[in-house]
Amino acid sequence: MYTSSGQLLFHRQGTLFAQEFDLVRLELTGNPFPVAEQVASSLQGAGVSASSAGSIAYRTSSAVAQRQFVWFDRAGKEISKVGDPLSTNLSDPSLSFDGQRVALYRGVNGNTDIWLLETIRGVFSRFTSDLADDVFPVWSPNGDRIVFSSNRNGLIDLYQKSASAGGSEKLLLSTAQTKLATDWSPDGRFLLFNSQDPQRNFDIWALPMSGANASPAGRSHQELDGAGKPVPVVQTNSEEQAGQFSPDGNWIAYQSNESGRIEIYVQPFPGPGNNWPISTNGGIQVRWRRDGKELFYVALDGRLMAVPIRVASNAGPPEVGAPVPLFAPRLGGAIAQADYRHQYMVSSDGRRFLVATVTEEANSPITVILNWKPRQ
Question: What is the pLDDT of residue 197?
Fold first, then answer.
């Protein structure tokens, strides 16, 4: 972040630093020096803002919110708790097809890994243990594999690991872009993932997972010819994220800011075809019901919404009902439009929701430095 007094602010291991920056040569000069300690950060960046008037605001990381997975019905009534409350993030949970296990990522002792949670016994077990950050897990349809993202080679690449005990890991896709898996097609043939070039926003891509000329529901799509060759699915100048396959694999739902506000859309997979809006006043974190007759998302006011939908088999316009508010799960903090992490899962019948619920808010105050000037 550039300051009006001519420095770049950056975050490193909990400390906010400043360093002189030459706007003509576009080069850093001198040595970095600390501005503040215990600055909060996440995958979305550091909690820092700089004013053109010379002030700096930052959020401290003195505590972490306590979370626990909780089952709720459609009215928001608690059904049961799963596992113990933990003072750690329980991020981007992915429910296995049989509903028996949840894959998620969490940080323990400074190391972010993929963990598994048994929904019956509430027992956590570590799935990855590399010193790099392992994030954004996605189950295969039959539950035998998990795809996740990791920066273990310096880039955020896609990896695959067998879900069985002692399963091996292998690099699935390595490119210069940031890649975050979001969903696996019901027939197992395609993986949806967010991809971001350094110079552009996130787009949605598909990676064929087996066989050349693979296509959903037996259809032939030349766009997806070639095993293992990723192709763009939604690629515009806007920000598209969090793609989710419909149960028949012929449609995807996703979030985009093409209207100027983040909204939920659906469109045929892999196309061609138009996209149709689903949300009406902003939305993130979309999920399908198992029978494809309903979509769920989180509105920007924090309420979980349900939308009746009927999609056509010929990529024609879907029949979309009015969004209906269900309840407001405790997801923690304000809903961020740029947040692409799912924090809830839907049972197969759409009657229950497993939510990474905040049971105790973090103590994370905002500190403001007035009239900040770099040290001489």
Answer: 74
Spell out the domain ranges in the chain.
Answer: 7-61+362-369, 66-360
- Which pLDDT does position 80 carry in this prediction? 94
Burial class (CB in 10 A: 0-12, 13-18, 19+), 13: exposed
Residue type at position 138: V
- Dihedral over alpha carbons 19, 22, 27, 28 (to 10 degrees): -10
Let me know: does 92 contact 98? Beta carbons within 8 Å: no
Name the stretches of the chain with pLDDT < 70.
13, 41-45, 61-64, 165-167, 198-199, 210-227, 314-315, 333-341, 360-363, 375-376
* Bridge-based pairing state of the strands 66-73 and 78-86: antiparallel
- Whether the Cβ atoms of residue 160 and residue 172 lie closer than 8 Å to each other: yes
CA dist 367 and 12 (Å) reads: 18
Q: Greatest CA separation found in the chain?
A: 68
Q: What are phi and psi of 250, to 5 degrees?
A: -95, -5
155-181: b (≥16 Cβ within 10 Å) or e: ebbbbbbebeeeeebeebbeeebbbbb
- What is 115-171 written as a DSSP string? EEEETTT--EEE----SS-EEEEEE-TTSSEEEEEE-TTSS-EEEEEESSTT--EEE
Structure-block tokens of residue 363: 């103590």
Report pLDDT for 358.
Answer: 85
Give CA separation, 90 vs 70, 108, 357, in Å. 12, 11, 9
DSSP classification of residue 106: E
pLDDT at 192: 94
pTM over 0.70: yes
CATH of domain 66-360: 2.120.10.30
pLDDT of the residue at 225: 35
Long-range contacts of 332-336 (CB under 8 A, 24+ apart): 332/65, 332/67, 332/358, 332/361, 332/362, 334/302, 335/284, 335/298, 335/299, 335/300, 335/301, 335/302, 336/44
Q: Which residue has the tokens 């012929």?
A: 250
What are 343's two structure tokens? 């924090």
Instruction: Output the pLDDT for position 219.
Output: 37
What confidence score (pLDDT) does residue 285 get? 92
Other CB atoms within 10 Å distance of the CB of residue 210: 11
